[in-house]
Structure formats: C-alpha cells, structure tokens
Specification:
Number of helices: 7
Largest sheet: none
Structural class: mainly alpha
Shape: globular
Order of helices and strands: HHHHHHH
C-alpha cells in the first residue's frame, strides 16, 4: 500500500534527521539486503520445517515493520529499522509460499502453480499500490500503515485457520 508515497516519506524524514548517514536510499537498500540475506536460511529451513510457520513468521515480521513505522513518528532510524524487518518478513513469506506451492501442486501442474504465484503477486503489488495511493490522497501515511497492519493481521488469521498444512495436503493426495 505504501509504494506510491514511501520514497517521499523517507526523503522527508531523512531531511529532518540530523545524521549525515540519513539518506533516501538507506531504508530501501536495507529492505532488499535483509530480503536477500534471509532467502538462503529460509530455503534450508523450508526443506525440513513447517512451511506454514515460515509464512506466518514472514507475516509477523511484516506486521512488526508496519507497526514500527506507525509509531516511528518522524524518527528516521526507526523507519530504517522497520524497513529492514519488513524485508526479512517478505523474504520469509516468499520462500514459504514458493515452497508451499511446490509441495501442494501436483508434479504435472507445477509450472501452472508457479505462474499463479507470479501473476497473483504482481497483480497484488499493482492493485495495492493503486489502492494505497488513493487512500493516501484522502488521509495521511499513518492511516495507510494502520490499514496495512489490519490487513496483515487478517491475512495471518486466514493463513493460520484456513490454509491447511502441507503435510495434510500431501497425505490426502497419497
């Protein structure tokens, strides 16, 4: 939801910061760095652990990042930390989701399963950006992050309650 206005928000907070290290690019760099760094250990865990737990942990970290931004006020370094936490959360969720799709999709339909994930993620990114921009045009950035947090909690509840574990699905198909 924040893609449309986040660069301006970060730039404004960096300008208000008295630190020489406060730049527009640092929160984005750390987001993608933590995203990339979490992929290998998450992939190793996905081979042995619960994929549902990886996705839930990713959602929880993303929620923590959103909440930290809400309470950061105009504190640049809290925003930087929040974006780093969100990057790790997104990386965990991505690995969990990809691994889950590989486990629950029949072998002959894995290409279709991967395509559904890619198309769904990109459609969500595009529509989320548009919806976030519309909401932001009528409110402030905190409201957008509060809405994002509520949606994250709803997604976590959905994942926890309604998405079956990969073990249940693989047992049912045997």
């Amino acid at each position: 939801l924040s893609v449309s206005f986040l660069p301006n928000l970060v730039g404004g907070m960096a300008d208000l910061s008295s630190s020489n290290f406060a730049t527009n690019s640092l929160p984005f760099t750390l987001y993608y760095a933590t995203f990339a760094l979490i992929l290998i250990p998450a992939g190793q865990y996905a081979e042995k652990g619960s994929l549902k737990n990886i996705m839930l942990t990713g959602c929880l970290l993303e929620l923590c990042g959103l909440l930290l931004i809400i309470f950061a006020g105009e504190q640049y370094w809290l925003l930087v930390m929040a974006r780093a936490i969100s990057g790790a959360g997104q990386g965990l969720f991505l690995i969990g989701l990809q691994s889950y799709l590989l486990v629950v999709t029949p072998k002959k339909q894995r290409t279709q399963g991967a395509a559904v994930k890619v198309i769904g993620r990109n459609a969500g990114l595009i529509s989320g950006t548009a919806i976030g921009a519309l909401i932001f045009s009528f409110t402030d950035y905190n409201t957008v992050f509060v809405i994002g947090s509520v949606l994250s909690v709803m997604g976590m509840v959905y994942l926890w309650v309604l998405v079956p574990s990969e073990h249940k699905i693989s047992q049912a198909s045997d």
